[in-house]
Amino acid sequence: MIQINNLTKSYGPNKGVFDLSFQVNEGEVFGFIGPNGAGKTTTIRHLLGFIHSDSGSCSIMGMDTHDFAAKLQEDIGYLSGEIAFFDQMTGLSFLRLLSEMRGLINHDRMNELIHFWDLDVSVKIRKMSKGMKQKLGLVSAFMHHPKILILDEPTSGLDPLMQTKFVDLIHQEKSKGTTILMSSHSFEEIERTCDRAGIIKNGKLVALEDIKTLKKEQRKVFMVSLASKSDIEKINSSTLEIVKQKGLDLEITTYGDINPLIMELSKCKVVSFDLKKQSLEKIFMKYYESGDSNE
Ligand SMILES: Nc1ncnc2c1ncn2[C@@H]1O[C@H](COP(=O)(O)OP(=O)(O)OP(=O)(O)O)[C@@H](O)[C@H]1O
């Protein structure tokens, strides 16, 4: 659906994007992450046809994003990282203007989204908080049922409750088959929404990670409480990796397959069983840290 082929746009050494290639498949949610100034917005601007590459190209649905920018806008919902609004307008008049420009007659989805975000659109944009403006931007990006969503830091300015609502909205769109590319600094958001993530650093793609595989192979720590000392002895004599033991409480590590753990626990009386929350943050963080290892 989205193809980036050897894209290069240089604003100076390590500034811009350099020989960048990746693709986003139809119906996929793709996370684009990387440190400040890595080149995420520059890539996104090419996808919207706003800037010309030095070399290489981008295409969406087989159409060059620069040559067919106007045509492609019909199918793209775009949220800019720095949204420029007409400050004197109310939220509603702004959305109506955009609807008119898009030739949108049915406003059901627009109203649904206003309601979803609990956004007071009667307020003038200049009086809106940062979060309200972000919600307005999200309504305008989603309201025309786009086939493709390109979102530059979509939850910046949203409070944690609204960030969770955003995740729900992405799941809704994914179930409809929408293709989504979004940049984010929130690992948790990427983990909760994306199928794959591309990690960019100094304008170069340093990794492409399949989130499901990462999660599957991820080290998991289970907190288990057993009923008796003899149960503890059974687990101690198994091949399970015990990382911590205190009285009848254990912390047991698994890598991928959790069945050996379940098998062993089935021989014991289990009082409680919990998964210790781990995130993919550690995996992603190594790409953020400075140094030449990933360059
Ligand atoms: N028009 C421009 N003129 C000069 N330099 C630019 C221009 N646009 C971007 N850059 C530089 O290119 C680099 C990449 O910028 P970009 O905005 O793509 O980063 P980003 O990954 O989106 O960062 P952030 O996470 O901070 O939003 C930065 O060093 C930036 O200063």
Structural account:
Keywords: ATP-binding, Nucleotide-binding, Transport. Residues 2-227 form the ABC transporter domain. One of its GO terms (molecular function) is ATP hydrolysis activity. Pfam families: ABC_tran. By secondary structure, the chain is of the alpha/beta class. The chain folds into 2 domains: 2-211, 3-Layer(aba) Sandwich (Rossmann fold); 219-276, Alpha-L RNA-binding motif (Alpha-Beta Plaits), CATH 3.30.70.1560. It is built from 11 helices and 14 strands. The protein has helices spanning 40-47, 69-73, 91-102, 108-116, 130-142, 160-175, 187-193, 211-217, 229-236, 259-265, 281-288; strands at 2-12, 15-24, 29-33, 55-60, 63-64, 76-79, 148-152, 179-183, 196-201, 204-210, 219-226, 241-246, 249-255, 270-276. The strands form 3 sheets. Strands 6-7-8-3-9-10 form a 6-stranded mixed beta sheet, with helices on both faces. Strand 1 and strand 2 (15-24) form a beta hairpin. Bound molecules: adenosine-5'-triphosphate. The site of adenosine-5'-triphosphate has 12 residues, from strand 2 and helix 1. Adenosine-5'-triphosphate binds at residues 11, 15-16, 34, 36-42, 81.
